[in-house]
Specification:
With 135 residues, the protein is of the alpha/beta class. It is globular and about 35 Å long. Strands 3-2-1-4-5 form a five-stranded parallel sheet, with helices on both faces. It is built from seven helices and five strands; from the N terminus they run E-H-H-E-H-H-E-H-H-E-H-E. The chain has a single domain, classed as 5'-nuclease (Rossmann fold). 32% of the residues are buried. The protein starts with a strand and ends in a 5-residue tail after the last strand. Helix 7 links the parallel strand 4 and strand 5.
Length: 135
């Protein structure tokens, strides 16, 4: 079972004050112990790094880059992925649907993935399966 990891999951795992931290930490441990291939994309890395640096500090951002990213396959956004993301955001015309998420949807489909470690209902709306603690 390959798993795509979204920004909010990374933030929940890395921030002990996050509302979803305990659930996220348990899910992360389970995923890693099972040896599931882990995927993300470079816009998610950028977004996560910026939030960690701003809200928690540079040490948290460094830990993310040095400890988490090396166990991930980071898929780089193609021009087509970016274009599909822009089109999806503009077509949906929804204020809280992010470009990063829409680009992730494109990449997840392109890679043929189904499972997503996230805390964002938009992924379920797109038909992806959210990782549960028991997974």
């Amino acid at each position: 079972m390959s798993v795509f990891v979204d920004t909010l999951a990374f933030l929940a795992v890395l921030n002990a004050d996050d509302f979803h931290h305990q659930e996220a930490a348990a899910a992360w441990k389970s995923i890693v112990e099972k040896g599931a291939p882990l995927f993300t994309q470079n816009y998610v890395v950028l977004e996560t790094f910026a939030v960690l640096q701003n809200r928690i500090g540079i040490a948290a951002a460094r830990g993310f880059i040095e400890d988490i990213i090396p166990v991930m396959h980071v898929e780089w956004v193609t021009e087509a992925d970016h274009g599909q993301g822009i089109t999806a955001v503009l077509t949906a015309a929804r204020r809280h649907l992010s470009l990063t998420d829409c680009v992730s949807f494109s990449i997840i489909r392109r890679l043929g993935l189904r499972k997503v470690f996230c805390f964002d209902k938009h992924f379920m709306e797109q038909g992806f399966e959210m990782v549960q603690v028991r997974d």
